[in-house]
Amino acid sequence: MAIATPESYADMLDRAKAGKYAIPAINVTSSQTLSAALKGFADAESDGIVQISNGGAAYWSGSSRADKVKGSIAFAAYARAVGDLYPGTIGLHTDHCPKAMLEPWILPLLEIEAEQVKRGELPMFNSHMWDGSAESLDDNIEIAVDMLARAKAANVVLEIEIGAVGGEEDGITGDENANLYTTADDAWRAIEALGLGENGRYITALTFGNVHGSYKPGHVKLRPEILGEIQDECAKRLGDRLSSKVGDTSSPFDLVMHGGSGSTDEEIATAVRNGVIKMNVDTDTQYAYTRPVVDWMLTNYEGVLKIDGEVGNKKKYDPRAWGKAAEEGMAARVVEACERLGSVGSAKR
């Protein structure tokens, strides 16, 4: 599995849009969870994206150090070191960077990548997300314009979010009673400011009632059909300008879906039909990783603990034993994500 180049990453996104499927983007927090994601993509013969949030980046550097930049570098270096052991193509992404994290996290990474590109090297990552969902739309777009220029200089893709996702993820919070539905006018503002790719490639999260975290179906009123309505309205406003855009000219946006836990298969399918090419998966894979560990500890209780002066069973408390079970559980959930999003078999051979 080769880590994507800027060209193969663009191709991966283009093929998803043309093929009407979405690529799972799996959040990882350690080499073990990264290995689980890679195994899952390989088992599904799918391309994929692995990504880190700001909290995940900090954890990668060691929980006692919490250095987001060094953790990001470590994540990317490990992924590149082991990536070719697996078939397919994998993109590397930084997820949900709010305004407060730009200076200490993403801007330093973009500076490193711009220097790499100047030296004729590949950039460390394939894409970065600017999360302006907590800002006013004016401020969100103003910062997005600056970030897009920086991303273009680093030869990476920028992800933006127009609208607010409810729930919580690494300190990114949204009130579930707030306006969680992006309008066509909101989306049009992004096109007017950022263009259609001539200023650098970007992908867009438009919100349709999404909520981060775990919830039961029916808790949130998802309206994925509004994604198609926004695509249609913006396409009409663009008119002939779309003729110069590569791909599906009826859908100006390459869309991302956040907060998909608890979504029904039909809701996901509708979102994908309306232009979603990347879907973030975090909460469900966290549980899929942890659940086998719980089973292991409960089943092997007397072996993992040294009870009443006994020595325990090294084969049971060896982290490789229960870690392998966790890896297999998470990998299976990644396969399920590939199946639900239609990306199975998408990996180029």
Automatic annotation (TrEMBL):
Query: Catalyses which reaction?
Result: beta-D-fructose 1,6-bisphosphate = D-glyceraldehyde 3-phosphate + dihydroxyacetone phosphate
Catalytic activity, EC: 4.1.2.13
User: Where do the annotations place Zn(2+) 1 binding?
Assistant: H96, H212, H258
Positions contributing to dihydroxyacetone phosphate binding: G213, G259, G260, S261, N280, V281, D282, T283
Residues reported to bind Zn(2+) 2: D131, E161
Q: Which cofactor does it need?
A: Zn(2+)
Q: In which pathway does it act?
A: Carbohydrate degradation; glycolysis; D-glyceraldehyde 3-phosphate and glycerone phosphate from D-glucose: step 4/4
Q: Which PROSITE patterns match?
A: ALDOLASE_CLASS_II_2 (PS00806)
Cofactor: record remark: Binds 2 Zn(2+) ions per subunit. One is catalytic and the other provides a structural contribution.
**GO biological process per UniProt:** glycolytic process
Q: Which UniProt keywords apply?
A: Glycolysis, Lyase, Metal-binding, Zinc
Q: Name one GO molecular function term.
A: fructose-bisphosphate aldolase activity
Q: Where is the active site?
A: D95
Q: Which GO terms describe its cellular component?
A: cytosol
Q: What Pfam families does UniProt report for this protein, alphabetically?
A: F_bP_aldolase (PF01116)
- Write down the PANTHER family for this protein, in alphabetical order: FRUCTOSE-BISPHOSPHATE ALDOLASE, FRUCTOSE-BISPHOSPHATE ALDOLASE CLASS 2
What does the UniProt record say this protein does?
Catalyzes the aldol condensation of dihydroxyacetone phosphate (DHAP or glycerone-phosphate) with glyceraldehyde 3-phosphate (G3P) to form fructose 1,6-bisphosphate (FBP) in gluconeogenesis and the reverse reaction in glycolysis.
Protein family: Belongs to the class II fructose-bisphosphate aldolase family.
Protein's name in the database: Fructose-bisphosphate aldolase
> Which species does the entry assign this protein to?
Actinomyces howellii
Upper classification of the source organism reads:
Bacteria, Bacillati, Actinomycetota, Actinomycetes, Actinomycetales
